[in-house]
Amino acid sequence: MGILVENISKQFGSFKAVDRIDLEIKSGSLVTLLGPSGSGKSTLLRLIAGLETPDSGRILLAGKDSTYQSVQERNIGFVFQSYALFKHLTVWQNIAFGLEIRKAAKKKIQGRVEQLIELVQLSGLGSRYPSQLSGGQRQRVALARALAVEPKVLLLDEPFGALDAKVRQELRVWLRRLHDEVHITTVLVTHDQEEAMEISDEVVIINRGCVEQVGTPADIYDNPATAFVMSFIGPVNVLSNTSSIFQSNDLNALYPQVFLRPQDVLIQKHPGGGAASAKVTHLINLGWETQVELTLDDGTVVTAYLSRDRLHQLDLELEQRVYLKANDPKSFLVPYSA
């Protein structure tokens, strides 16, 4: 089921949480609403779910105006960060709960619950209670419960936020595989850029109640539409356009700020070709790559990321003099402000 958001706004007192947002989510896609805390992404999700009523605009589900429909009428599954499982019910009973409320036939309930327990990889755990499960297992139960009633849309509000990094990583991979199996329209809210980039068909960048950009993860990263998107997605150096690292042919002259990804800082051991002189001030081993902090002669600090092979080629040491060039710097009409 496709989702169409038209000119939606929502205000709480003097705070404008969602400001005239237009958004189309294709049927069967996995879309992430990504932004900092307080950007409006969770409010937008709750508006789609029917948990909040917009001040203006409308929401269409499968082409039908659903702006004032109840949660039940929208046939939407919702999963919260807190799991919201019934502590006194087993895994099996939690998953069956929605079907029992709808007075589904016992045979249908039995078959659906067993199917979902296998789908979310919890076989053999149906008789356990939530307190007997890990955080990752509880979140899988919450997802299975949401899927039990066969919703047309699945909404996930920071579902992995309370879990440790390793479990989050595992569940991200699992959720992407699950989505590819069930093909249900899924909207995920997160402030974790890596999570959004890893699992999404499309990413919606939200800032201060407005949509900054919509696109595939590759489009968002490689072709950011605004200074905010460039600064929010992945690490970046924000430099003055007068910095010595930029040559006359760099596309930076019109705007005071220039953005440069750490992997686009080119390091050479010898001067030449207009490269800027710098000194190696820190070397931080990140395992798969090394973060190099360099100080230009004017005192500006620049961060670069090097692969292991490139680091060995350069054989860098602290206080070593090196020379820098910028590959693919970007500038924007509206400057970035943190």
| Low-confidence runs of at least 5 consecutive residues | none
Alpha carbon gyration radius: 24 Å
Structural category: alpha+beta
- Report the helical percentage: 25-40%
Continuous helix count: 10
Helix-strand topology string: EEEHEEHEHHHEHEHEEHHEEEEEEHE
Instruction: For the record, give the distance between the C-alpha atoms at the N and C termini, rounded to a whole number.
Output: 37 Å
Tally of DSSP β-strands = 17
Task: State which percent range the strand residues make up.
Answer: 25-35%
Strand order of the main beta sheet, please?
A: 6-7-8-3-9-10
Largest beta-sheet details: 6 strands, mixed
Look at the structure and give the mean pLDDT: 89
Overall 3D shape: globular
Task: Describe the protein's architecture and organization.
The strands form four sheets. A six-stranded mixed sheet has the order 6-7-8-3-9-10, with helices on both faces. A five-stranded antiparallel sheet has the order 13-17-14-15-16. Strands 2-1-4-5 form a four-stranded antiparallel sheet, with helices on one face. The chain starts with a strand and ends in a 12-residue tail after the last strand. The chain is of the alpha+beta class and 338 residues long. Strand 9 (202-207) and strand 10 form a beta hairpin. 28% of the residues lie in helices and 31% in strands. The model has no long low-confidence stretch (mean pLDDT 89). It contains ten helices and 17 strands. It has helices spanning 41-49, 71-74, 91-101, 106-119, 135-148, 165-182, 193-199, 217-222, 227-232, 308-314, and strands at residues 3-12, 15-25, 30-34, 56-61, 64-65, 76-79, 153-157, 185-190, 202-207, 210-215, 237-240, 257-260, 265-268, 276-285, 289-296, 301-307, 321-326. The protein is globular.
